[in-house]
Specification:
The protein is α/β, with parallel strands linked by helices and 806 residues long.
Length: 806
């Protein structure tokens, strides 16, 4: 794999960055925190996206802090792999940081979308992000771990880097499945045995034989009971038919008796009605003489009613005219009162001193004052917010400066874990300048606020005076408005009264003088009261006598109806005697039928009990068959489970043997590659390295093998670097892809200048194994030892810049 071109846009501290990568050893040099690691991280992010081992601070921290919410963050990477040319671009956009990605191979679009591109990269490179980082990226803390860990801890670390420990998880999963299956088999064995230890299926088979024999006996008994019940059913049906026949005679007998009783009741009622009608006719014949005596009084009452009707119309006109005259007089009095009230209102309006122009001038002055106060207060508020921000920034800078001062030049940087060195004093000076500048800005802001608070106070006093004057003028305006409204309303009321008086005058004139006498009206009313009882009696008698002809006709009809009813009753009595119904014979038949029904019901209950017992035994037989089938299934499952448990145990042992085989091959390979690198880096001063089964490192010196702890820190760092490079080489070879890429982050550690030169010469020799080796360091005195250098610098505004130093 050879990296060709990298382009960053709004990625962390890089606003815009474009780099072309040469082959060989390439140094990435810059001060601590300048963005060197971000530059390398962007390559991994372009390949694999937002994986937690790649993105240190979450995807929210990837887009530059100086970029807007809608600005795009993107990385474009070009590289060659196994003869193919790749163009990869990954972006984040919008407030939600939505991901987009595309991958082209040999100018042909291979995949689009975040997940699709990542899967395509994994498939073509033969490794996921974890394997890629381990195989191409080596950090100083990895080398420190290799040197400080005890042998068994170092072994675990190496196996984790090589991803061999996954076999331990596979074996653990297989053993867990085997334990779980073994527990299940123990439970099955318990289910297949009864309390006495015998097979549950044998006991159930014996019980099934007993139930089947009992069912055969019940079948014979039920058949006999069903035959006897059939004979009883025939006798009950015959008895029922006889009862139904006699019941028909009974119904006819009862129906004729009921009809006879109804006819006799109707005959008696008709005779009573006839007697009442004869009495009523006799009474009406006696009232004819009284009706003749009341005739003249009734005629006089009718004439007086007509006269009274005419006088009522004249009386209503008389009362209406009198009421209209009264309302006219009341309107004249109200008109006089309104004229006096209007005179008082007009006099009060003339003496008022209110001026509308003065109120308008006060309103304009008050509006201008409020506007001026608002503008000054907005300026003061903005300055106070800025003061709060400056105080917070100054606190952060002071705290940072205190932390850096307490660390000292020999301490590690809290951000990158590298020695501060000569950067310590420069960083302290920079923080002091920032703190001093913030303090001066705070003093300036407070002075500017003080110059604006005094005008605000004076304008406030003026505003209160304007508010008092406006309130006084508004009260005067309100009083004048009330007087004017009162005048307007009273004038409208006066016009309405004038219109009403004119209408009342016209109404009185149109009525004229009514022809009505109260004395004559009273005389007519008195005579009518005397005649009312006699007129009403005449009307009642006249109405009653109109019914006389109808009553005579109804009497004749009743005589005919009585004769017809007497004939029908005689015929019904003859029909009753001809039926010949015997009530005692019907009672005997019903008693015999009830006895037969009781015997049949008892036999049915007995048959139901027998059938219920048969159903219970049949259900028990089905339950036993079901239990035997389930036990058979469990026995089959137990046999299959024991076979599967044997296969799992065999597979577990095979995986353990496979792991031992891999580990036996890994140790010699790591030892051989690391030894070759160590000889080159030490100018063949040492005979090489040896890695034993516990991953403890020894060094050949003068033909003898010595533990690594015997040598200085420089040799130890070189040995651990060689071991780490060997691990990368093994992973790259195992992936099957031609990665040929190596990134080393701050690997010099405690090496002196000679050792640094040897490391650099060895890395140059490693170019035949790795086409590109990127060396990240903040030590600038090694630049001359590198073929190519990319300088990373931080500008005053916090942005990072990178360029190939030519």
């Amino acid at each position: 794999m050879r990296l060709k071109y990298l382009e960053l846009h709004n990625y962390r501290r890089f606003e815009d960055c474009r780099l072309e990568f040469p082959e060989g050893v390439v140094g990435i040099v810059g001060t601590n925190g300048s963005g060197k690691s971000s530059l390398i991280e962007s390559i991994s992010w372009a390949l694999y996206g937002n994986e937690s081992q790649i993105v240190r601070t979450g995807k929210d921290g990837i887009r530059s802090s100086f970029a807007g919410d809608n600005d795009e963050c993107s990385v474009k990477l070009e590289f060659d792999l196994e003869g193919d040319s790749y163009l990869l671009e990954r972006t984040m956009r919008g407030r939600g940081l939505s991901m987009r990605a595309s991958l082209s191979v040999n100018d042909h679009l291979e995949a689009e979308g975040d997940r699709a591109v990542t899967q395509a990269i994994i498939a073509r490179m033969g490794m996921d992000h974890k394997a890629f980082l381990i195989s191409v990226y080596a950090k100083q803390k990895d080398l420190d771990s290799l040197s400080t860990l005890r042998p068994h801890e170092r072994k675990r670390l190496v196996l984790r880097l090589l991803d061999v420990d996954v076999l331990d998880r596979v074996v653990s999963d297989i053993d867990g499945d085997a334990r779980e299956l073994s527990n299940e088999l123990k439970g099955l064995e318990t289910s297949l045995r009864d309390e006495g230890g015998g097979l549950t299926s044998d006991r159930l088979k014996d019980e099934r034989s007993e139930v089947a024999e009992r069912l055969r006996g019940l079948g014979s008994t039920i058949a006999d009971a069903e035959k006897g019940l059939e004979g009883l059913d025939l006798n009950v049906d015959a008895s029922r038919i006889a009862i139904e026949t006699m019941g028909g005679l009974e119904r006819n007998h009862r129906e004729l008796q009921r009809t006879t009783i109804e006819r006799r009741s109707t005959l008696e009622a008709t005779r009573d009605h006839l007697r009442r009608l004869v009495t009523e006719i006799e009474r009406l014949e006696g009232r004819k003489e009284e009706l003749a005596q009341l005739f003249h009084d009734s005629e006089e009452y009718g004439r007086l009613v007509s006269v009274k009707r005419n006088m009522d119309a004249q009386m209503r006109l008389y009362e209406q005219r009198k009421g209209t005259l009264k309302r006219l007089e009341e309107a004249r009095g109200r008109l006089w009162e309104l004229d006096n009230e209007l005179a008082d209102d007009r006099e009060r309006l003339e003496v008022s001193l209110f001026d509308e122009d003065r109120l308008g001038a006060v309103e304009e002055s008050l509006t201008a004052t409020d506007s001026e106060i608002g503008e000054l207060r907005e300026i003061i508020a903005a300055m106070r917010v800025e003061i709060t921000q400056k105080v917070s920034e100054m606190g952060e800078v002071a705290g940072h400066r205190t932390d850096v001062a307490s660390l000292g030049p020999d301490s590690l940087c809290p951000m990158c874990e590298r020695p501060l060195g000569h950067h310590h004093d420069g960083l302290l000076a920079k923080l002091s300048v920032q703190e001093s500048g913030l303090n001066e800005e705070l003093t300036s802001l407070r002075d500017r606020i003080a110059t604006r608070e005094d005008p605000v106070e004076k304008l406030g006093v003026r505003r209160e005076a304007l508010l008092d004057r406006r309130s006084q003028l508004q009260e005067e305006a309100l009083a004048v408005g009330r007087i004017r409204f009162s005048i307007k309303e009273r004038e409208k009321h006066r016009d309405a009264i004038m219109d009403k008086m004119s209408a009342l005058d016209e109404e009185v004139g149109s009525m004229g003088e009514p022809m009505f006498s109260e004395e004559g009206y009273a005389q007519i009313m008195g005579r009518m009261e005397e005649l009312v009882p006699r007129a009403e009696r005449h009307t009642i008698l006249s109405t009653e006598l109109t019914r006389l002809p109808e009553l005579v006709r109804e009497v004749s009809s009743l005589h005919q109806k009585i004769a017809t009813l007497e004939t029908e009753i005689g015929k019904l009595e003859v029909d009753i005697s001809e039926i010949g119904f015997d009530e005692n014979a019907l009672k005997d038949s019903r008693s015999n039928h009830d006895e037969l029904v009781q015997r049949r019901d008892a036999d049915r209950i007995e048959l139901y009990a027998l059938r219920s017992r048969r159903e219970v035994d049949m259900a028990r037989l089905a339950s036993l068959d079901e239990q035997l089938a389930r036990l058979g299934t469990l026995e089959d499952g137990s046999r299959r489970g024991r076979m599967r448990l044997q296969r799992l145990q065999t597979l577990s042992q095979a995986m353990r043997d496979f792991k031992d085989s891999i580990m036996a091959r890994i140790v010699p390979s790591l030892s051989r590659i690391a030894s070759e690198l160590f000889v080159e880096m030490t100018d063949a001063r040492y005979g090489g390295l040896l890695l034993n089964e516990e991953y403890d490192v020894s060094v050949y010196d003068g033909g003898a093998l010595h533990p690594l702890a015997r040598f200085s820190g420089g040799e130890s760092d070189l040995a651990n670097l060689c071991l780490r490079l060997a691990i990368s080489r093994v992973i790259a070879d195992r992936s099957g892809s031609d990665i040929n890429l190596l990134m080393l982050d701050e690997i010099f550690g405690s090496l002196d200048q000679t050792r640094k030169r040897n490391v650099m010469e060895t890395l140059n020799h490693l170019s035949r194994h790795f086409r590109q080796i990127f060396l990240i360091t903040h030590i600038e005195d090694v630049k001359d030892l590198m073929g190519h250098v990319i300088m990373v610098r931080e500008s005053d505004d916090g942005r990072s810049h990178a360029a190939l130093d030519v």
